[in-house]
Design goal:
The structure is a homodimer of 888-residue chains. Chain A is of the alpha/beta class and 888 residues long. Helices cover 48% and strands 17% of the residues of chain A. The interface between A and B is large, with 56 and 56 residues.
């Protein structure tokens, strides 16, 4: 194979060649090889696109190669590009390595001009069809290749329909359509500032270049960023003989999934439209019909589709997303690919395919995107609540959401990124709306079907979607919709259930989800594969119980500050802080002791038999006091409004305390073990409460709690040495008082960069390390989360400076390097050192996999992320095996 | 030599055995070897002390070893411990590896009891001497070994003197002193709660243990911390035959320096007291006489001292600090060690010893402590100013200081550590005052001489000291002193000149010091040895010029924010910040441009021919606005006091802006390049101003400034890539406009841990790295400097959790690890990458040496630290050579 080969015939490729041929092209080649009817064609490779991106021109020889393959195609089909007698017509479609539905550009019916259109009309005996194809080609070419706003063509079409008194496009006559082609060309020539190219070969090369360029358009970039697809892969271009679903009532087009992409049910799920081209179905412009209805229209085609469905599922061993066209009763397949699916569908499909013997358990585990599990565990509508259902559309992507209605993707992005809950309401969505979808809680459209753009994208993102809610009369200009008498304005609260398709007025009550059978099955397999432990971050017995239901194997982080914040404790906490000396402080701490003991008692019982890591007090003390600005303003108010001297004096005392504790950068101030070192009595009280609670639980239940005491914010070995000594002294004193023996360990959070850098020293004092990657990220990157998100970090993400939010996805190059270093250094002095992660990253799949690769013992995450972590941990094992095999 | 050898006779050791024998013991052994008269004795090693510290008991065999050496000593001297006929008397002195003057304990006259004292009286025919020695022994033993407050003995002595009508101790008769021994024993037995041990062997072992324990006393620990002496070295114990300077008028004692420790002049400098023991001189209780006066009293002894001075200086090749005693006209040397000296003396001695051929230039460079240079460059009294001199004492340690008088070491420590300028005024000082001296600007005593404790310690620390200012009548209780009619109360301002000994009322004017001849000589040698470049941190032409005088080879950090803060610019800066959009912001930036250009113009001229690194704007924008709490309080005030609606509205607008920019942790917020990335127009203005100024200077002087533009707070390669592109685009545009070519480089601060961790990526975009170790320390340790110092960091230092302040001395284990990693990674992709440090550590000797070892190209420090850095950089080279030789 010559290194300069940039073009492959479908018959030359196969499904393994995706990196070079793109997903669509490789699968068209594969189907061709399987003997499935595919219109013939060839593929311009991704390598050509990469060259074009870098150099702004074709690589040497590409023009000739394309034209040689064109000649071969002409020979095969007996038609010739530009031949008025037997014109060859082509479709030009992008095809990237990873599916990017609707993100890039397509040109259909290429090869038409004023002469070939006549030849097409004669050859088919269908002038209406010929001119319909021609007007479609001009507008697509104008939009995609020449950059003309497609609305101009839409407006001309609408005007023509009005003139002709036509209700639907299909009501237009051949003459109407011929006239429309003239108008379209005029629009194109005027708007583009250059002439529509009549030369079909010129059309072809211009279209190939347009597809190359579409790789770098804004919406494609945004999509790639959200999906983590690299920017340097390029897209292939598929040049394929046109087949026509719009040739009349014996022609049609459709899309199908080999199983239900919403529920996973093993049911042939699809939609079709007669006398239409494929874009009509996907764009949701007309309402498509369920696939089964094809039986009444063209039963043989349906039977053939069923056979192809079976062939493809067995061949690909995964649920497929198909596109087909019927031209004059002959079925052609235009695409197959692995179908996007909801979490529920992913799990059901995976589990059932194992039962069917189609795939192994390991393959099933790799089929499910861990992030999707998250949506399964998201709240759903409270079935016991009552609410006003405004309308019911198609349940296109399950899940419940509550948000304020917004009618514009930009606004959805802006408000959503500020943390506001919004639901995007649109007539239909198109790829330009993607940034709004990302930031919305869910999306509702009044048009389009289950396979419309909004539905496909929402399912991919695990967001609720209701499509085709036709009762919603949307006025985009006025930013409102009406359902009968009810008007919902921009900013009004609505709720939605993406499973049942119900659109609800106001804020509906939501309840937590539970794990269903398929989830349980797949997670059971995950547990048998994974090595990484999965714990939870829980501060209350309720959270602990919930997490245990979800499979948590212990508590990796129990924060004690939330306990201090509760209403009945806060006065004691404040008195403790404002104490004049140690003796007074101990007095107030003694009042807090019973509360703390009770907290731990409940948690130990909920986690019976499993380890519980309790972090001693971490936040700066001023967090328990009122805000400095507020107390100063209040003081000014008291002074100016003639308050009593006593009131002013009391406020002055409070102000003085608040001021003395105020910090310029509290994140880097007196917190964590710095509290325990200066006021050991605080930590001593907490340790006493922990160990007394453990002794109580032992006495009551006969079971010993597994106690792990964690010292936060250690940066120097000596800090941990002192706090460890205090902990051991206090704990052993309690155990001696109670006359019981309970094992406990003492470890530390690794959250200060220095702790990671000197982990070999710190490990000498630690039974375990728990990586606090939230703070470690803040300090390693110099990003205060409070000040970054919504400010410079948002700017960085929007302008592509960062690919992902480092507070969500662990920054492996920076923070991850410190984690790996700390594990290695820690184990160099203490080989059995237990290590875990308790930052939010413990519930994010790429970060969980990093933790596995780095050799941590466990991850700890919020209760609802536990299933996700279990699955990701299993996938990490399987990916490791796979890369060991391929030697990656 | 058996591994269990814990005791060495003086004749067995030499000066190279300091780690084992301690400094004093090793030098006594060395002098013994040189044939200099040293009272015979033996040394219990530091290894025995280390064992004792760890185990709380003697190592096996030590008791027997000590007693065997004792027998040998008895044989040598013909006297026996405890023998009433010919009693052997011993001195027991500590002797650590590094000199810790007065920090640890000493017991003299050991071996006396009610029987041996009679023998001593008979043997010497001097009952008065015998009982004087006995009462001294009881009180010292009581204090040092049995923990009795020495004031109790002082009070008894005072009472006795009153009863006897004696003015001086020497006026007391033998009977008076005998009576005093009875009283002293009674005091000891009562206060210690156990009996004074009459058994001299028991006295000996108890004293050895007391010296061991004194290694871990509080003042010794504090001293070690300030001097950077490790805690695990232990002290040796010197057991030596007593010689008596208090045997009458043909006996005496003294201390001497082979050169003047204050000025370095080659002059035999010392003091003596007749009929006294050594402690009397050091403690400053009696006023000693200048050494030269010994010629009139005992000329032979003085001649012998001169000969010994010469022998020892040649032998040790350094200025020596000597202790001697004359017993009945016979001279004995009790100690020699390298003498502590002022910076001025260190430099003069080093330079002159090179001229004298005594040492090499390299040795001279290693003789001067770089930290001492700092004091040389500290301000001195303005000779043109007039001031009221209250009194003149001994100029015991040079330098000028201004501060509030304080009369208590604890108070000096407390106020000094808060950053207040205080001068400690004491009758005399003792080792317990060390913590107060550390935090004071200087110290004045009304008693004691040039070799008193205060003087020695102050010279070591480079702090001004005036000793023996007898006109000051100090009332410690009332916290004030009087000089004639003038009363100076606690907190009143005074000034002092430690060179001339003048005590001045009020705040005297100070002027900067300049570099003198000896400094210039030694620094010239340093420059010829060092490889590390030395630059300065300077924001103004004045600072730049001063630093250049001190030898700076360029500017390593020119901060631009100080320029923004100036009164004539701040309104434009505020308008710029509050601008509604980019266009308006650019309008205000255009007004700032001429100011910035002018700033850079002056700096380029001052640094003509040398590189200038300019850091673009770094601090968060809210630093240029009023404080949030203040604007809120003002708003409340305006509202409550019925201000006009306009005034309230204006304040509300300001409040809103301040609030929108307020940050929870500004250190980790929108600052550094995060400003330039979000508002590129700010950095573009600065780059334009820099390059326009460079072009102006070139046009005017014909010399091209060496411009280095530095982007702060980079953590990700992409940040620097974008800011570099902006810089290059702007700079090249200006150069094109001006039609000139000026080279410039673009680099970055490494101050975010992630930048160090990913330095191989960042180096791709950088011409240089400058380590901002202030911020790097803050983030790596999680220490906000504002919130740490005076709060938890002070606590850490006081409680020995940290040995040094990481903002002063680079934390090599943590922060240094990142620096080394960044240099290595950066050079792995760009071998010629220029690297420097511009944090405050660039002016701290151990940190400068670290920078040399790590391979940095330069350090940059404040102008006054430039000489220090030059010397430390040379020492780093010499130390590297030495360790290469020894294979360390």
């Amino acid at each position: 194979m010559s290194p300069s080969k940039y073009v492959y015939d479908f018959s030359e490729g196969n499904a393994t060649m995706k990196p070079l041929l793109g997903g669509k092209g490789a699968n068209l080649a594969e189907m061709t090889g399987l003997g499935i009817p595919v219109p013939p064609g060839f593929i311009v490779t991704t390598a050509a696109c990469v060259y074009y991106s870098a150099n702004g021109k074709y690589p040497d020889g590409l023009t000739e190669e394309i034209e040689a393959h064109l000649r071969a195609l002409e020979k095969l089909t007996g038609k010739t590009l530009g031949d008025p007698a037997k014109p060859l017509l082509l479709s030009i479609r992008s095809g990237a390595v990873f599916s990017m539905p609707g993100m890039m550009d397509t040109v259909l019916n290429l090869g038409l001009n004023d002469e070939t259109v006549e030849g097409l009309a004669k050859g088919t005996g269908n002038a209406r069809f010929a001119y319909d194809s021609y007007r479609r080609f001009i507008s697509m070419f104008g939009d995609v290749v020449m950059g003309v706003d497609p609305q101009a063509f839409e407006d001309a079409l609408t005007a023509k329909k009005a003139e002709a008194g036509a209700a639907l496009d299909t009501d237009l006559s051949a003459d109407d359509l011929r006239d429309l082609t003239v108008r379209f060309k005029k629009i194109l020539n005027e708007r583009a500032g250059e002439q529509f190219p009549a030369d079909p070969l010129k059309q072809l090369h211009m279209s190939v270049v347009a597809v190359f360029k579409s790789w770098d358009n804004h919406r494609a970039k945004v999509y790639r960023r959200t999906q983590g697809i690299p920017d340097d892969l390029g897209t292939a271009v598929n040049v394929q003989t046109m087949v026509f679903g719009n040739k009349g009532e014996t022609s049609g087009t459709g899309v199908a999934f080999t199983r239900d992409p919403s529920t996973g049910e093993n049911f042939f799920y699809g939609e079709f439209l007669m006398n239409a081209q494929g874009e009509d179905v996907v764009a949701g412009v007309r309402h498509p019909r369920p696939l089964e209805e094809l039986r009444g229209v063209m039963p043989e085609a349906l039977e053939e589709l069923y056979a192809i469905r079976s062939t493809l599922e067995k061949h690909y061993r995964d649920m497929q997303d198909l596109e087909f066209t019927i031209e004059d009763t002959t079925l052609y397949m235009l695409q197959t690919r692995n179908g996007k699916r909801t979490a529920q569908a992913a799990l059901r499909t995976a589990a059932e395919m194992v039962t069917e013997g189609l795939i192994t358990k390991e393959e099933a585990l790799l089929r499910v995107d861990p992030l999707q599990l998250d949506q399964l565990l998201h709240p759903r509508l409270d079935p016991k609540a009552t609410y006003q259902v405004l309308a019911t559309g198609l349940g296109a992507s399950p899940g419940a959401a509550v948000g304020q209605a917004v009618f514009d993707a930009d606004e959805a992005e802006e408000r959503g990124s500020r943390g506001e809950a919004v639901i995007l309401v649109r007539w239909e969505t198109n790829p330009d709306d993607i940034h709004g979808l990302i930031q919305a809680q869910g999306v509702i459209t009044s048009h389009g079907g289950m396979t419309s753009h909004a539905a496909v994208v929402a399912r991919g993102m695990g967001k609720p979607c209701i499509a085709g809610a036709q009762d919603l009369k949307i006025d985009t200009e006025a930013k409102r919709f009406a359902v009968g008498d009810v008007i919902v304005n921009d900013g009004d609260w609505i709720s939605m259930d993406g499973a049942s398709g119900r659109v609800i007025l106001g804020q509906a009550g939501l309840i937590p989800a539970a794990i269903d059978e398929n989830v349980g099955t797949v997670l059971g397999w995950a547990d048998s594969v994974r090595r990484l432990g999965v714990r939870t971050n829980a501060d209350t017995p309720d959270d602990a119980r919930k997490a245990r239901e979800f499979g948590a194997e212990g508590i990796g982080l129990c924060r004690t500050e939330h306990m201090f914040m509760q209403e009945d404790r806060l006065p004691h906490v404040r008195n403790m802080i404002m104490a004049a000396d140690t003796a007074e402080r101990e007095l107030h701490l003694a009042k807090l002791l019973p509360f703390q003991r009770e907290d731990f008692d409940g948690i130990f019982r909920a986690m019976s038999g499993l380890p519980v890591t309790i972090r001693l007090l971490d936040p700066p003390l001023h967090e328990f006091l009122p805000n400095y600005t507020e107390v100063m303003v209040e003081l000014e108010r008291l002074r100016l409004t003639g308050a009593s001297a006593d009131a002013v004096a009391a406020q002055e005392k409070l102000t003085a305390t608040v001021k003395s504790l105020a910090e310029a950068n509290p994140m880097l101030g007196t917190r964590g073990c710095r509290l325990g070192i200066q006021w050991p009595e605080i930590y001593a009280m907490q340790v006493r409460a922990i160990v007394e609670a453990a002794a109580d639980v032992l006495a009551d239940t006969g079971e010993k709690p597994h106690v792990e005491i964690m010292i936060p914010l250690v940066g120097f070995e000596e800090e941990l040495k002192r706090m460890r000594a205090l902990t051991v002294e206090t704990a052993d004193a309690v155990l001696a008082e109670r006359g019981v023996a309970i094992d406990y360990t003492v470890g530390t959070m690794i959250e200060v960069p220095r702790a990671a850098l000197t982990a070999d020293e710190i490990a000498r004092q630690a039974d375990f390390f728990s990586f606090g990657t939230n703070d470690l990220t803040q300090m390693t990157l110099g990003f205060s989360r409070d000040d970054a998100e919504g400010k410079f970090l948002t700017h960085y993400l929007r302008t592509d400076l960062l690919k992902s939010n480092p507070f969500e996805k662990l920054d492996q190059a920076g923070v991850g390097q410190l984690v790996a270093m700390a594990v290695q250094k820690g184990r160099s002095v203490k080989p059995q050192l237990k290590t875990g992660i308790c930052g939010e990253h413990g519930g994010e799949p790429t970060s969980v996999k990093f933790c596995h690769r780095t050799g941590l013992n466990y991850v700890s995450c919020s209760p609802y992320r536990v299933p996700l972590a279990r699955l990701a941990a299993a996938q990490a094992v399987l990916e490791e095996k796979a890369s060991a095999k391929t030697g990656d």
